[in-house]
Amino acid sequence: MDAPNPPPPEPKKKHKRALWIATIIFVLCGLLFLIYWLVWARFHKSTNDSYVNGNLIILTPQVQGIVVSILADNAQMVEEGQPLLEIDRHDFEIALDSAKSGLANAVRQVTQMFFRVEQLEAKKEQYEADLLRAQLDFDHRSALVADASVSREEYEHSETTLLSALSSLLEVEKELAGAKALIENTTVPTHPTVEYAKAALRSAFLSLHRCTLLAPARGIISQRRAQVGQWVQANDPMMALVPLDQIWVDANFREVDLRNFRVGQPVKLFADMYGRRTKFHGKVVGLNPGTGSVFSILPPQNATGNWIKIVQRVPVKISLDPKEIEKRPLVLGLSMTANVDIHDRSGPRLPGAIASKPIYKTGVYANELAGAESLIEQIVNDNSSPIVYDPMRCRLDCSELNYLYRAQLGLPLFDRHTYTPFDPNKKEIVDEAPGSLDEFSPTVKINRQR
User: pTM here?
Assistant: First the structure.
């Protein structure tokens, strides 16, 4: 006779066992999630609302004209200083030739100003000699008119001659003062008229140089609008240039995630273009001083109508490793996933003041006037006379004439400017007693004997 079968397990025991298993699994999942949060999740903030951003240089000409050639097109890499576009140069070449002629003419005019001073110096010496002769004639006739040795008419003629000589001397002295005022404290190259012509030549030289549009940085050309034969004005956009080494990521984090963000915290980034296997590294540069909605075209008006709270997002600027960008280039607008490690919270919340040095710069425009100064110097030298105004030379020459005239009359010999005796043969001052200032001063008392 067979043994009886054991009774089946009770349904309550099976249900209880399943409940215990589910509870244990749930607790284990909770513990694992707690460990994950304590160890990793609470120290990392992630968002896929991130995009590549960077400098977009709009290239515009600095002069107007007709486009005659285009040297770069969209999606082409260009180097810093590489020509991109040419504007017709004929008008600017004519303007430069005109500026050259203007500078040459200015140099010749200023040179004439210096010679004019020498001319008036000599003329003044002549009028002084005439005045001296008229003074002596008047003195002689004044002594002889009393005893009728000379006629009254001759005496009066000598008086009017003296007045005319004095008037002529005063007139030439004023002309000489005006001529000296035009060249005082200057030379031919530094005269204001010449400096003005130099500035005009530099401007024409610069305009001719700017007929070639140069790339201010290394990058890729985009949005070319220029066409051959097109008339363009200064500041018209011709094309855009994107420097691939001047890019960053703007990650838009929720405002509730920014509590522990600090400048300098490390960031891991993934680009949809390269997939999750390609990892980029960066650092937090800082937070923008406003949410995206504040800087939108139509900012929100939360004080009007019904209000619904919406969690705002703040752009966080993240710098990228230049070496990684060089190996795997990124273009503007690409989608990125940013993961910020907030373990280190010792950094500042806001970036500090930057040093007074440029963040971005180009050396393309530094030497635009290269060659202009040598051209100016050549024009000035070619149109300048080697003989320019020398007050000492003119004084000595004119005084020598005065010396010869006074020697013929048997009068004391002295330098009219210093009233010091001198020897014209030695061309230097002689150590003798000075002459009388009253007798030979240009200011003559005509009626001193009356």
Answer: 0.71
